[in-house]
Amino acid sequence: MCSGKEDTGEASRNHIPLKEKEQRTQPERVSKMDKEFHYHITGIIARRAGFSDEEARTIAHASQLVDDNDTLCSIHDADSGTEYEVYISQTMDILKPKRELMRIYPIFHFLPGDPLAPSARRSDGKMHILTTTPRNNLARKIMKATRKEKSPYRLHRLGVAAHAFADTWAHQNFVGWYDGINGQDMNLLPNIGHADFINHPDWMGHCWNDSRIINNQVNNHHRFLDAAKCLFQEFSLCTKGKNKDASWPVLQEDLQNAMGPVFSGEKLMGAEARLEKYDKLFRLPDYEPRTWFNSAVETSIKGLPDDFMPSLTVFKDHHQWKGNWQNSDWYLFQEAVKAHQAFCMKELTPLFEQMNVKLSDH
User: What ranges does the record give for the region Disordered, renumbered to this chain (predicted)?
Assistant: First the structure.
């Protein structure tokens, strides 16, 4: 149980492109598990599981980029004269969401699980077939399919899959769809994902109250350590024991020490100290969302950049591939996003049909 302000408890396929007109227009995101896990801890876990330094950095960057890949554009190939369409894995503006974009949330951030799981039991007895639950069947299927990936974007797809996999802990008991089951009483914010609970489900080391469920005192340390353990197991299956010294108990102790004490309240606390400790476990470059894009794409800006304030954009930026773009991290990440989306669309279509929803229309 959390008490007070601080505690020391343990802690090209048949893809369906999104139309450019559907791009978000505000700087807020529906869901964003903190970068501490998706980038830093994911990188640490990948390295300990036996991936090389470079491989672990690629996985970590791809994992975090899922949350920052929110700008639609096309990229011109001067040699062939064709346009490459970018797919997004995150959407903007929680205040004016569009139904056409709802399919992004259950694919990249709120993988549907088991609504009958004990952890999902609610005081009002309600259930929803899209409820996210930790390490659910779809999450495991995604990781298994990704382990078998033989393409040049295997590491990038591992990062994308790891993001969705970890989010099943942070976003448990929410659904990536419009529904009152997500909301708190008397809160007027849209009932999409965990908008009513702001950032509480995503913060590292945070204690908070989820008033909707029976076991309503939530310690994110416990949730995220469990996520780290399961992700370590998945990554270890990928590397097939390359790291002979890999040990979850050792990694668990290191992560617990790095995470430090838990806290409660309305502000993120202790992040600077935790980041210093993460760096001692495995040093990652300072994360910049546009690093891969800028390395692969030459952009001619006309007026304001398209991603500055899309609603005010009059003249679209022109994007063109640089040399050897087929081997660039940005292209490989985009192909990974498309592969992940295609796999999940196929898996989720029967589930959405039970709701009389044709997922391919959204």
Answer: 1-31
